[in-house]
Design brief:
187 residues; mainly alpha
């Protein structure tokens, strides 16, 4: 758990070309070229972006920051959002989360012993809300989450899950470029 105040931090910002990923060492394989973003959506729709930032701040109020990063990473994995995966794994590491728990998140069902029951309930709920096209959020998933979270906390968690899914959709659609984010860079 971090002591950092995250109540005013938005979830994403456009990539900046100043912080390139570390290039490979001389004599090693070359990386594929970096793709170009489609749109600088935050600049083109600043009112939408600012509203998203405010909604994100309201959604995460009271949600444990470590749990929140796990939720953001899992939703971003499911949505194949490389930009948000880059951001939230870096933020999680900077907040003290272990590499092991971040790596195992993609296979959490087989590595449940890395997580608390509360975290498992949140991750399970994240999957159900994120992959809503598979049907409704199953009653058993919701009930497990409801046993772990007070109603007000559960609403905040659902709002946070909804927000990362919205951020993922902007980032994936606009092809935001991963690799340039620095922890705390979205303040």
């Amino acid at each position: 758990m971090t002591t950092q105040d995250t109540t005013t931090q938005p979830t994403t910002t456009p990539a900046t070309p100043t912080d390139s990923p570390t290039p490979p060492a001389v004599g090693t394989a070359r990386y594929a070229p970096e793709h170009t973003p489609r749109l600088a959506w935050a600049e083109l729709a600043p009112d939408v972006y600012k509203a998203m930032v405010r909604l994100d701040a309201a959604a995460r109020r009271g949600v444990d920051p470590t749990l929140l990063e796990l939720v953001k990473i899992r939703a971003s994995q499911l949505n194949h959002c490389a930009f948000c995966l880059d951001m939230h794994t870096k933020d999680a590491l900077a907040a003290g989360e272990s590499v092991e728990r971040i790596v195992q998140l993609g296979a959490w069902e087989e590595s449940r012993h890395f997580y608390t029951e509360r975290e498992i309930a949140a991750i399970e709920l994240t999957e159900a809300v994120t992959v809503i096209t598979d049907g409704f959020v199953p009653d058993e998933v919701y009930e497990r989450a409801a046993r772990q979270f007070e109603e007000a906390d559960l609403v905040q968690l659902i709002a946070s899950i909804t927000m990362i899914n919205a951020w993922n959709r902007f980032a994936v659609t606009c092809r935001m470029v991963p690799g340039h984010y620095r922890p705390g860079g979205h303040k």
